[in-house]
Amino acid sequence: DLLVKAAAGIPEALGARLSGGGFGGGCVVLLRHEHLAAVSSALQDAFRSAYSRECAIIEMRPSAGAELLS
Fold first, then answer.
1. Which of 2, 6, 32, 40 is the most exposed place for a label (fewest CB within 10 A)?
2. From CA 68, how far away is CA 50, in angstroms rounded?
3. How many CB atoms lie within 10 A of CB 3?
4. What are the CB-based long-range contacts (under 8 Å, 24+) for 34-42?
Protein backbone atom coordinates (compact mmCIF):
# COMPACT_ATOMS: atom_id res chain seq x y z
CA ASP A 1 0.00 0.00 0.00
CA LEU A 2 2.82 2.39 0.84
CA LEU A 3 4.44 2.16 -2.61
CA VAL A 4 1.12 2.48 -4.47
CA LYS A 5 0.33 5.59 -2.44
CA ALA A 6 3.84 6.96 -3.04
CA ALA A 7 3.58 6.27 -6.79
CA ALA A 8 0.30 8.19 -6.91
CA GLY A 9 2.25 11.29 -5.86
CA ILE A 10 4.90 10.94 -8.59
CA PRO A 11 3.82 12.70 -11.81
CA GLU A 12 5.95 10.40 -13.99
CA ALA A 13 4.24 7.27 -12.62
CA LEU A 14 1.28 6.56 -14.89
CA GLY A 15 -0.37 4.09 -12.49
CA ALA A 16 0.36 1.56 -9.77
CA ARG A 17 -1.28 -1.47 -8.13
CA LEU A 18 -0.51 -4.22 -5.66
CA SER A 19 0.06 -7.74 -6.91
CA GLY A 20 0.14 -10.87 -4.76
CA GLY A 21 -0.28 -8.97 -1.50
CA GLY A 22 -1.12 -12.04 0.57
CA PHE A 23 2.45 -13.34 0.51
CA GLY A 24 4.46 -10.14 0.73
CA GLY A 25 3.47 -9.22 -2.78
CA GLY A 26 4.74 -6.46 -4.92
CA CYS A 27 3.81 -3.18 -6.47
CA VAL A 28 3.58 -2.84 -10.25
CA VAL A 29 4.17 0.72 -11.46
CA LEU A 30 3.54 1.74 -15.05
CA LEU A 31 5.92 4.40 -16.40
CA ARG A 32 7.86 5.47 -19.46
CA HIS A 33 11.39 4.03 -19.54
CA GLU A 34 13.02 7.46 -19.49
CA HIS A 35 11.51 8.07 -16.04
CA LEU A 36 12.74 4.80 -14.50
CA ALA A 37 15.60 6.32 -12.48
CA ALA A 38 13.52 9.18 -11.06
CA VAL A 39 10.53 7.00 -10.15
CA SER A 40 12.73 4.26 -8.67
CA SER A 41 14.58 6.81 -6.56
CA ALA A 42 11.36 8.38 -5.27
CA LEU A 43 9.87 4.98 -4.38
CA GLN A 44 13.11 3.89 -2.71
CA ASP A 45 13.10 7.10 -0.63
CA ALA A 46 9.50 6.53 0.47
CA PHE A 47 10.17 2.90 1.42
CA ARG A 48 13.41 3.73 3.24
CA SER A 49 11.69 6.52 5.17
CA ALA A 50 8.92 4.18 6.33
CA TYR A 51 10.89 0.98 6.97
CA SER A 52 14.57 2.02 7.36
CA ARG A 53 15.68 -0.41 4.65
CA GLU A 54 15.84 -0.72 0.87
CA CYS A 55 13.14 -2.31 -1.26
CA ALA A 56 13.86 -4.47 -4.29
CA ILE A 57 13.07 -2.77 -7.59
CA ILE A 58 12.95 -4.99 -10.67
CA GLU A 59 12.60 -3.51 -14.14
CA MET A 60 10.17 -5.44 -16.34
CA ARG A 61 8.96 -4.79 -19.86
CA PRO A 62 5.61 -5.85 -21.28
CA SER A 63 5.53 -8.62 -23.84
CA ALA A 64 3.11 -9.47 -26.59
CA GLY A 65 1.25 -11.72 -24.13
CA ALA A 66 -0.01 -15.26 -24.33
CA GLU A 67 -1.19 -16.79 -27.55
CA LEU A 68 -2.70 -20.06 -28.67
CA LEU A 69 -0.19 -22.45 -30.23
CA SER A 70 -1.38 -25.00 -32.74
1. 32
2. 44
3. 22
4. 38/10, 38/12, 39/7, 39/10, 39/12, 39/13, 42/6, 42/10
